[in-house]
Amino acid sequence: MVNQLVVLLHLCDSLFPIGSFAHSDGLEAATSRGEIQSAAELSGWMDVTLTEILRRVEAPALARAWQATAEHRFDALAGLDDEVYALRPSSTGRESTRAMGSRLLKTWQQIRPCDAVERLLSSRDHLTLPVAFGVVAAAAAIPQRDALEGFCYTRLAAIVSAAMRLMPLGQRESHTLLAERLSRVPGVVGEVLAGNGQLGAFTPVLDVMVMSQQYMESRLFKS
Q: How far apart are CA 24 and CA 208, in angstroms?
């Protein structure tokens, strides 16, 4: 049996083919408009992502999806997924999270088939990324906390990866920013596991950038 840590590392690897490299979640629009031009400004963007988007929407959704899958309550996933989908401010953002989540489910079932994912795919083959991640992690017996911390890592690392392609940001500087955010992830995950409130975040600047992305004349990223 493969060690669960190895399975989680595989799931979180940037090489895993879900298409996340093609999305910046509005960061491209923010850099092109001059809203994000320095490491300090990028640091603020990452802080909001961690404390609002991850803490209040995506991580709680992942935790609930993990729990529902572990308890074989697959009927609860549809409503949860619809809520996460509706909370995305732009049509491209909604479609991108569903596209990545669906690809995650289908690819995982091909390389690590399991009954839980097969059962889900037979009734619903599209899920948002955090919900799909929670399903796959539970099906692979990855502990809930580990799954949450791994997902936070992938989301924050994706921001750094996109930023390095969009602005003059060196590797050492970018990974320093990432390390600073990652040091706060365990605390955020602890808050998620201790709470059970409604999903929802207030991120007006990030939302405007996400909605503006699709209207750029030329771009590197889809969203």
A: 13
